[in-house]
Structure to design on (298 residues):
């Protein structure tokens, strides 16, 4: 008895489609222009970083020679040790500020976005409008009222003060992110949970929050980056004992005593920017997924 082996059919592209694909693979003037623009943009942003990195490994004698783009003839890590000794206190202050200033706004924003998307309390649209308007109020407008209120409360210049300020300014954008994300979730899922007897907190903790990992990563990246890179709020509200890394970096770079140590300044700047850069590199995939899943949907 003979057996016939069926071979899978290989799709054959029409001749016109093959010609079109071949034309796409060729470098047209427009494609060359796009590549040239992308390369120029990447070079524009990477060149300062390159200069900072190589300068941080040079001695001051080599820096005084004036060849900015040359690689260091003798690599030294002494500028990095010096920079870390000057900004390490600010680093841990920034960590102490960034952790609660990220967790609390994300948690409150998730609850607000969940309530505004599914439960629709009375005046929900008005409340959302007020929160959204808060995202567009300049920080400088609110500094004096906040200073006055915190001074009256006796917490000005403390760690709780700077954390509370970041929570206040982070709430609008966090609520907007989570509301738009939950608005893209099928409403039938919420209705099914309600039929099963789920209440406000049970549905939030057992249904919505486990689905929110992509948008939580997006919110965490945005909040950590904003808090870590902040200068003016940390300068005004944190006080000398809780000054974040950006404030101490400014003190290092703008010192008016002695010789200006460019290698130490560059190393301190890279140390200050290392945390946001590491977060972006590690969580980039989740950031894109969260954006695509509804972070910017209306």
């Amino acid at each position: 008895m003979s057996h016939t082996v069926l071979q899978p059919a290989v799709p054959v592209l029409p001749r016109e489609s093959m010609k079109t694909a071949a034309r796409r693979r060729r470098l047209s003037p427009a494609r060359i222009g796009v590549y040239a623009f992308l390369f120029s943009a990447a070079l524009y942003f990477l060149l300062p970083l390159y200069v900072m990195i190589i300068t941080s490994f040079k001695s001051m004698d080599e820096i005084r020679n004036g060849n900015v783009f040359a690689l260091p003839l003798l690599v030294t890590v002494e500028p990095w040790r010096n920079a870390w000794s000057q900004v390490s206190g600010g680093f841990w202050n920034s960590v102490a500020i960034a952790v609660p200033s990220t967790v609390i706004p994300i948690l409150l924003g998730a609850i607000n976005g969940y309530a505004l998307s599914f439960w629709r309390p009375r005046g929900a649209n008005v409340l959302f409008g007020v929160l959204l308007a808060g995202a567009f109020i300049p920080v400088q407008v609110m500094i004096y009222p906040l200073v006055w209120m915190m001074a009256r409360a006796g917490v000005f210049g403390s760690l709780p003060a700077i954390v509370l300020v970041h929570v206040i300014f982070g709430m609008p954008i966090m609520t907007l992110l989570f509301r738009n994300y939950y608005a893209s979730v099928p409403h039938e899922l919420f209705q099914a949970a309600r039929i099963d007897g789920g209440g406000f907190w049970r549905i939030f903790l057992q249904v919505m929050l486990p689905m929110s990992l992509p948008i939580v990563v997006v919110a965490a990246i945005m909040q950590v980056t904003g808090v870590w890179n902040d200068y003016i709020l940390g300068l005004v509200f944190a006080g000398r004992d809780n000054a974040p890394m950006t404030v101490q970096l400014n003190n290092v770079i703008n010192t008016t005593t002695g010789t200006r140590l460019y290698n130490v300044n560059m190393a301190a700047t890279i140390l200050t920017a290392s945390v946001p850069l590491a977060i972006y590199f590690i969580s980039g995939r989740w950031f894109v997924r969260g954006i695509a899943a509804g972070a910017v949907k209306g």
Notes: The chain has a mean pLDDT of 83. The two ends are 65 Å apart (CA to CA). The first helix runs from residue 15 to 25. The chain is about 75% helix and 0% strand.
